[in-house]
Amino acid sequence: MFMKIIMQLGTLTCPSCMTKIEKAVANHDGVENVKVLFNASKVKANFDPEVTNADDLTKVVTGLGYEVENVKVK
């Protein structure tokens, strides 16, 4: 069963940032339905908790050089 993660980012400054984050998270094992909301500076995705977790997904984003201010998992 998939869980949903919502990561609140620091301000995104360009659409290419959005694409970069979306691709990196989508390429992570166990992730599907990734959507970056540019104006809200949020990343939403579904993930399989048997394959990955919120900490791993947060590290994907911070590894790209973006700040994750808050993480919610449902």
List the helices and strands and how they pair.
Elements: E1 3-9, H1 15-26, E2 31-37, E3 42-47, H2 54-63, E4 68-73
Antiparallel strand pairs: 1-3, 1-4, 2-3
- The fraction of residues assigned to DSSP E strands is 35-45%
How many domains would you count in the coordinates?
1
C-alpha-based Rg, rounded: 11 Å
CATH topology: Alpha-Beta Plaits
> Roughly how many Å apart are the termini?
12 Å
Give the biggest beta sheet: 4 strands, antiparallel
Secondary-structure element string: EHEEHE
Overall morphology = globular
Under CATH at level 1, the class stands as Alpha Beta
What's the pLDDT, averaged over the residues? 96
Strand order, largest beta sheet = 2-3-1-4
Helical content (DSSP H or I, runs of 4+): 25-40%
Q: Count the strands? A: 4
Oligomer: single chain
So, CATH architecture? 2-Layer Sandwich
Can you put this structure into words, describing what you see?
With 74 residues, the chain is α+β, with helices and mostly antiparallel strands. It has one domain (3-73): Alpha-Beta Plaits, CATH 3.30.70. 30% of the residues lie in helices and 35% in strands. The protein has two helices and four strands. The protein has helices at residues 15-26, 54-63; strands spanning 3-9, 31-37, 42-47, 68-73. The chain has a four-stranded antiparallel sheet with strand order 2-3-1-4. Strand 2 (31-37) and strand 3 form a beta hairpin. It is globular, with a radius of gyration of 11 Å. It starts with a strand and ends with a strand. This is Copper chaperone CopZ. Residues 3-69 form the HMA domain.
